[in-house]
């Protein structure tokens, strides 16, 4: 009898210790926008971003430092829709951390919680490096991002139920500030509506979709392929045929092609931060949106 | 036999279309990944320590299937087709399962897999920057060492990446020739550890130490009256087709490896540079009837250093220098006494390659190789040129560092 009660006690102790109780939630974000989102929703958490705004998230090395970071993560937050397919599966395998493998618990793909744009029925490599699951660069769609934030705060509650009230409070506060901000961004960007741009890749697909900007040309001949001289010549011809307001590219993309096109067309060119950066004017999601709209307006004038 | 192989292949090749058509649009878990690698070459000479014939040929043409079996297991199968003259062989290079939900950073892999010793060995050949593995790999590990066995791996919960593991493997291809009468069924035991981290946003590094114990690796010299080259056995039978056997064996193999990668701001899209090097030393090579002290301290060794620079998304170039030094035994009867003489032979290899990558998935490579070798390590010509293509189809495979 005494033995069994001891055993029971021990079992309870063990079961108790299995329950995830986080002194500090350890989050591995694939991209800085999700690091920033976690900072809003769980300011106490320790967040690490695997990439920076100067790195193409398609082409990351499954390097040792990332394995070590993922080994100790409680939650993995990524864009999904195959953006990280070239390196994340290898990281997951090497990190041997079962906590971040289940898409219902420690693994969170933002694209799973929204409708992506440009889903494809059929994918063929001759089309370039395209994603069947749609465009994964959702960081510049404030409405979709709010949906992601909602799903993410619920995930945080699921993983760390003790802090439920706090996560809810943080999300509500974020939602309010974000909704306010959307209004002011939309007002500020109203003159951008209907503008026609040539951009690099589909990096800003959601931004253009939101603000009513039309991307009439792509500096990449096919997704993932760098601008070739014949393709640039084609864009030059395009710029002569129809009015184009701006050439846009992201911070991690090579400026050679855009510069060439800008000098030959006399069009303005702008390099936008691809995501949240370490610079003071775009080191959070709020500042990033401000910065991008300001830069677009400035370049148009 | 040939018919069944082609049926197998046909059914495997048909699967991708079927899978692509049915693949549900959800995140990249729970699906079967199918990928194929096409690899063809033209080589101007027969190189030393190489199975590749001169002229046109096909390299390792792969078909790989992989995926999560359930939440606890991952599985992968890689079939390699090797065309050698008129013969086409089907070979199973990988067929393993790996645990994915063991706690505390542990994982177990079982079946047939690439050993995790050294830096290059666990990498797939189609990701290599040169047309062949370095001479030291071809001499000691049969190009790349895969085998049937079991691995236990552990990743430490440290800021610095630190992993370690042990493997037990069959070792059938790593046996010394004249050891058959007391062959151990589990012939190979390995242990390895790897460390790595970032220096800054642009640079990262990894280092590894490995040890391989080959229970059947010691060559016995006294049974070999009719063979004056005691150790170079498997390498000689070039006509036996594709051969993965180690050409030189010994009881202990010690290795140290290091790799450094650089890309501006860590952005690998446009430019990157990789510097890597490995050193291997093999000891306890021979045993003889009478104890011969001069055999004890003899060792084989080899190393290479390689630098590869991708200066634009479409072009990369690489330079590699490596060498192997091996002990070759000559036996003869002198005054009724059995005598063994060891002679040191070496092969020095300098290679330069330039590659065109139309996309991330296709590579065309031109390589110049200069080989300086003696006797059994002599190529048909010092200078050789190889033109190679490597293309991948199907699932986007994730690559190791």
Write the layout of secondary structure elements.
The complex is a heterodimer of chains A (301) and B (401).
Chain A: H1 2-18, E1 26-29, H2 32-41, E2 46-49, H3 64-71, E3 75-78, H4 88-95, E4 107-109, H5 142-159, H6 164-188, E5 196-199, H7 205-211, E6 214-218, H8 229-241, E7 246-250, H9 256-265, E8 269-272, H10 285-300
Helix pairs in contact in A: 3-4, 5-6, 6-10, 8-9
Chain B: H1 2-22, E1 33-43, E2 55-58, E3 61-68, E4 73-84, E5 87-99, E6 106-114, H2 135-140, E7 146-155, E8 161-169, E9 188-198, E10 203-214, E11 219-220, E12 252-262, E13 272-283, E14 286-287, H3 293-296, E15 300-312, E16 315-334, E17 337-359, E18 362-373, E19 383-394
Parallel strand pairs in B: 11-14
Antiparallel strand pairs in B: 1-2, 1-3, 1-19, 3-4, 4-5, 5-6, 6-7, 7-8, 8-9, 9-10, 10-12, 12-13, 13-15, 15-16, 16-17, 17-18, 18-19
Query: How helix-rich are the residues of chain B, as a percent range?
Result: under 10%
- The counted number of beta strands of chain A is 8
Low-confidence stretches of chain A: 11-19
Global morphology of chain B: globular
Give short descriptive properties of this protein.
heterodimer, A: alpha/beta, four-stranded parallel beta sheet, B: mainly beta, 16-stranded antiparallel beta barrel, two-stranded parallel ribbon, 19 strands, globular, disordered N terminus
Explain what this protein looks like in three dimensions.
- The complex is a heterodimer of chains A (301) and B (401).
- With 301 residues, chain A is of the alpha/beta class.
- In chain A, 44% of the residues lie in helices and 11% in strands.
- In chain A, the strands form two sheets. Chain A has a four-stranded parallel β-sheet, with helices on one face. In chain A, strands 6-5-7-8 form a four-stranded parallel β-sheet, sandwiched between helices.
- In chain A, helix 4 (88-95) links the parallel strand 3 (75-78) and strand 4 (107-109).
- With 401 residues, chain B is mostly beta strands.
- The two termini of chain B are 39 Å apart.
- Chain B has three helices and 19 strands.
- Chain B has helices at 2-22, 135-140, 293-296; strands at residues 33-43, 55-58, 61-68, 73-84, 87-99, 106-114, 146-155, 161-169, 188-198, 203-214, 219-220, 252-262, 272-283, 286-287, 300-312, 315-334, 337-359, 362-373, 383-394.
- In chain B, the strands form two sheets. Chain B has a 16-stranded antiparallel β-barrel with strand order 1-3-4-5-6-7-8-9-10-12-13-15-16-17-18-19.
- Helices cover 8% and strands 51% of the residues of chain B.
- The interface between A and B is large, with 54 and 56 residues.
